[in-house]
């Protein structure tokens, strides 16, 4: 089953439009807001945004050029104690070169005193802090005063940006419910923007023929979009508007901007921080190029260069679609953003005679790219792309653990753009590899209830990538010891194949522990070291599709050796559980032979993603599956 598409609307607008809606003025409070106990359209919410209002307009300033000026105002009602954290406000902005700035910050908190009178607490300017996050971004932070359960607080500020081409995305929907959200856009009449609207409920658009009064986009009573397990691309499901400059039509001047993928590619190829950045020469790479020149297979050369860049470069966790430092400086410092690292990879692959190209991608957390609407801002990273005959390589050397021949899991089942003059549209990224977790263990039960045993854990495909990350963070022992229904500790741990990314990551474990017991009985699980945790699908309803990222396979093969003074009081039954479409299958086979219990549990998830409509089947399957996995081998002393 594949992810269902949302409703997209393509709109265009010019300036000289006007609309207005009745909204509560800043500094004015209705007592009913303070007396509110719950959100009528999203019951149980910890807080509700009463008003989220933004306005943006563009002005030309002598000696500066075009500047966008935005005004924002937010009013929030705290409904539960755990919602008080909403009063901690952080506002980031691009400070480098004075590109953006935030000013005119004001805030007020409202509470009812013991007599039911309204008390106001104003934000003091001395409690507003401004600090640099990195070389580009800064952050303004402040805590709204006297925030507690029942509080209503509001704040407002202005943001300026040196630009005529950028309108920030407006999110009507947030993680908590929004009662009223409105965005007013005032654009000079010779700029035209294309809008991409994502919505699942009515959006009101108010326009007027008045001069320089703008267009209001309004939504009301929007439920909060909460995080859901095994979901990706949350931004795809936020109701919002995206903007992109499409046309400049001024007196004596006309230009169409980024109206096709072909034009976007041409623009990028001529950009000094994209196409031109790739043409730089790197120092000190002669040895690797000499080494790969002797390799006969293209795949061997790709692997060698990929591993070389992967080992030598450190990602600074910054996503971007442009070079930051330039690849020469990035290579010298061995630290860079995701694009510079992959530009270095592309550069070296080309030097080795391999036709590598930049691949614009949008990671799943950043949201999908719609092939019909050429929006450059929908991408957030550049990977390396090589097509060798029928084989495609999609590589991200910024990922320390993903091998060259495995599609990075955060872009599987997305659309991407190969930046090459022969390309006219997006290509789909698909992956055929799986997450494979195999466990083999033997365990002896002693008369005093103590346990001792050995396990071999093998992780292949995407499971290797994820397990390597856990290993490098020194969390592997802790993860192995985390098992439901048994208490064990790792006595020794040996990790094999960590330097050969094409082999399964093997962990050999010596462990000990104690039987869990109660009421004179002792209990053993049959899914030891599987790492399945607790049932993630317990909510009745769901908004976003289920995305496992990739097909998965779990196999646990185990043997328990029992002492003579124990008997098996209850043995779980052989079981086969299957989804109606056979896409998920759980099989358990177990047998008792004298004092030896042998079993094999397999779980196969054949599809990577499931539609929202299929969620009831997923929920029902996982409920039954975890009930089966919770069954125990029950022992009793003679």
Summarize the structure.
The protein is mostly beta strands.
Outline the structure in words.
This protein is mainly beta and 638 residues long. Helices cover 14% and strands 40% of the residues. The protein contains 9 helices and 37 strands. The strands form 8 sheets. Strands 6-5-9-3-2-11-14-13 form an 8-stranded mixed sheet. α4 runs antiparallel to α6 and α5 crosses α6. The longest helix is centred in the middle third of the chain and has 15 residues, at 298-312. It is globular and about 90 Å long. 34% of the residues are buried. Mean pLDDT is 90; it is low at 1-21.
Write the layout of secondary structure elements.
Elements (H helix, E strand, L loop, with lengths): L7 E6 L17 H5 L11 E15 L3 E14 L9 E7 L5 E13 L5 E5 L6 E4 L4 E7 L8 E10 L8 E2 L6 E9 L4 E8 L5 E3 L8 E8 L17 E11 L2 E4 L4 H9 L16 H8 L4 H15 L1 E2 L11 H7 L1 E2 L1 H14 L4 E6 L19 E8 L2 E5 L18 E5 L8 E3 L5 E11 L4 E12 H11 L3 H6 L5 E10 L8 E10 L1 E3 L2 E4 L21 E2 L4 E10 L4 E5 L4 E4 L5 E10 L2 E10 L3 E2 L4 H15 L3 E5 L1
Parallel strand pairs: 2-11, 17-18, 24-31
Antiparallel strand pairs: 1-12, 2-3, 3-9, 4-8, 5-6, 5-9, 7-8, 10-15, 11-14, 12-15, 13-14, 15-16, 19-20, 19-22, 20-21, 22-23, 24-25, 25-27, 26-27, 28-29, 29-37, 30-36, 31-35, 32-37, 33-34, 34-35
């Amino acid at each position: 089953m594949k992810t269902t598409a949302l409703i997209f609307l393509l709109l265009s607008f010019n300036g000289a439009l006007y609309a207005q809606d009745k909204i509560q003025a800043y500094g004015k409070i209705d007592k009913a807001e303070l007396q509110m106990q719950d959100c009528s359209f999203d019951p149980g919410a910890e807080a509700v945004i009463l008003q989220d209002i933004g306005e943006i307009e563009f002005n030309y300033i002598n000696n500066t050029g075009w500047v966008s000026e935005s005004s924002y105002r937010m009013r929030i009602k705290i409904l539960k104690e755990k919602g008080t954290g909403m009063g901690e406000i952080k506002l980031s902005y691009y400070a480098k070169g004075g590109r953006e700035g935030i000013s005119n910050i004001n805030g007020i908190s409202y509470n009812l005193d013991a007599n039911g009178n309204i008390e106001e607490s104003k934000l003091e300017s001395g409690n507003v802090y401004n600090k640099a996050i990195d070389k580009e971004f800064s952050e303004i932070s402040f805590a709204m005063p006297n925030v507690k359960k029942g509080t209503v607080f509001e704040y407002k500020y202005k943001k300026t940006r040196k630009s005529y081409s950028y309108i920030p995305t407006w999110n009507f929907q947030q993680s908590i419910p929004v009662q009223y959200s409105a965005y007013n856009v005032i654009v000079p009449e010779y700029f035209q923007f294309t809008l991409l609207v994502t919505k699942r409920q009515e959006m009101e658009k108010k326009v007027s023929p008045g001069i320089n009064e703008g267009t209001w986009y309004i939504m009301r009573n929007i439920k909060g979009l909460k995080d859901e397990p095994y979901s990706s691309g949350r931004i795809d499901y936020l109701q919002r508007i995206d903007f992109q400059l499409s046309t400049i039509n001024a007196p004596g001047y006309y230009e169409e901007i980024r109206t096709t993928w072909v034009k976007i590619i041409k623009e990028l190829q001529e950009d000094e921080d994209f196409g031109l950045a790739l043409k730089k020469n790197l120092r000190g790479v002669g040895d690797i190029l000499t080494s790969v020149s002797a390799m006969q297979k293209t795949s061997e050369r790709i692997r060698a260069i990929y591993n070389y860049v992967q080992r030598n470069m450190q990602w600074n966790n910054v996503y971007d679609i442009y070079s930051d430092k330039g690849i020469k400086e990035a290579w010298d410092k061995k630290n860079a953003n995701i694009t510079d690292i992959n530009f270095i990879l592309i550069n070296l692959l080309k030097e080795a005679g391999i036709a590598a190209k930049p691949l614009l991608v949008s990671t799943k957390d950043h949201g999908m790219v719609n092939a019909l609407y050429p929006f450059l801002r929908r991408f957030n990273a550049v990977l390396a792309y090589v097509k060798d005959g029928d084989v495609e390589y999609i590589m991200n050397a910024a990922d320390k653990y993903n091998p060259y021949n495995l599609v990075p899991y955060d872009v599987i089942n997305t659309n991407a753009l190969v930046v090459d003059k022969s390309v006219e549209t997006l290509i789909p990224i698909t992956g055929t590899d799986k997450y494979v977790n195999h466990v083999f263990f033997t365990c002896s039960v002693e008369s005093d209830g103590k346990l001792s045993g050995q396990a071999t854990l093998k992780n292949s495909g995407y499971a290797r990538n994820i397990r390597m990350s856990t290993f490098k963070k020194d969390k592997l022992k802790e993860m192995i010891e985390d098992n439901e229904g048994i208490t064990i500790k790792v006595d020794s741990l040996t990790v094999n194949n960590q330097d050969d990314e094409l082999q399964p990551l093997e962990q050999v474990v010596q462990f000990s522990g104690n039987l869990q017991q109660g009421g004179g009985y002792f209990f053993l699980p049959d899914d030891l070291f599987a790492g399945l945790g607790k049932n993630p699908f317990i909510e009745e309803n769901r908004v976003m599709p289920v995305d496992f990222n990739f097909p998965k396979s779990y196999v646990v093969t185990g043997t328990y050796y029992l002492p003579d003074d124990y008997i098996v009081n209850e043995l779980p039954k052989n079981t086969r559980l299957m989804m109606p479409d056979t896409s998920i299958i759980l099989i358990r086979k177990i047998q008792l032979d004298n004092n030896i219990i042998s079993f094999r549990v397999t779980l196969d998830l054949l599809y990577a993603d499931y539609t929202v409509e299929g969620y009831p089947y997923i929920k029902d399957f996982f409920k039954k599956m975890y009930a089966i996995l919770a069954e125990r081998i029950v022992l009793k002393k003679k």
